[in-house]
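Protein in question quoted in full.
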Amino acid sequence: MYDQHSHRKDEHVFLAEKFYQAQPDNGLAEVRLIPNNLPEISVAKVNLTSTLAGKKIAAPFFINAMSGGSPETAKLNQKLAVAAAATNIPMATGSQSIALKFPQAAASFKIVRQNLPNGLVIGNIGASHNLADARAAVEMLQADLLEVHLNAAQEIVMAEGDRQFYWEENLQQIISGLSVPVIVKEVGFGISPATLERLQKIGVKNVDLSGHGGTNFAKIENQRRRAKDFSLLNNFGLTTAETLLASQHFANSFSFTASGGIRDALDIVKCLVLGADNVGIAGLFLHTLIKKDVAGLINLIEDLKKQLKSIFALLGCANPTELQQVPYLLSTDLNNFKQQIKFK
């Protein structure tokens, strides 16, 4: 059984890279920023510091969940952690559920803390797990934060996936009983306003909106199905831009992470302008690591920081918070979506 689960982790990574798109359909291209022609600031005055679930972070982006659970993904986690340590950004692991069931998989996750001893490490489990499992996942990594993912659409398309989704009580117990902050996240289908209302009622404070446009788990799991009969869900969900617009009503209730198809510094800036406090990046970093190894990933991360400082200055903003005052324009389709999703 362990070998089957481990192989699935390798398949996920292989297919994520196979389906990687340089130009993702995350909706951010439909957002245009209005120039500030008198910025009255120098690049040297820009401070990229932001927060992630209440923790101070040196730049407003991090390595989001992607790997672990097999010998091959252990190698990826080790390299990702080395890059995170070298660039001083946080790192989340992939789902630790396999290690909770098969202890021999734990080493592929523990390797992150071993290579990122002083950095911010984020654990990851599914919402089907209880508080005891959440505590075990945090202990496994000595994690500073825990992501709890909502992945009903992925499970439905996955041939061997769960078919029961009674998660709210687990979430409530984890939120109230865990010793570290919790981030509730989707896995690429976007979190809706109705879901945010329910999360608000059970005490959730941090949400990764994880919109459509990046790693597509409907497409990945459909590829793994023998009949390939679930391509109808390939475009299911809300895009990254849509999730950010839809969540603006809840700006005072949550700290938002934006993720889903982030490809460059301008994508990051647009997410911050639309209300995110930070941005999670997985596919771009995985693709870069596979193509250019650790040195290439480190170079990319440092380039993103430099470009962010330049774009901040171009917009006349000294920090991520000020970006939320930057004016923007939306495409007709995206503006129509915003009008329709508004709360009464």
Summary: The chain has one domain: 2-341. The chain has 14 helices and twelve strands. The chain has a mean pLDDT of 94. The longest helix spans residues 283-314.
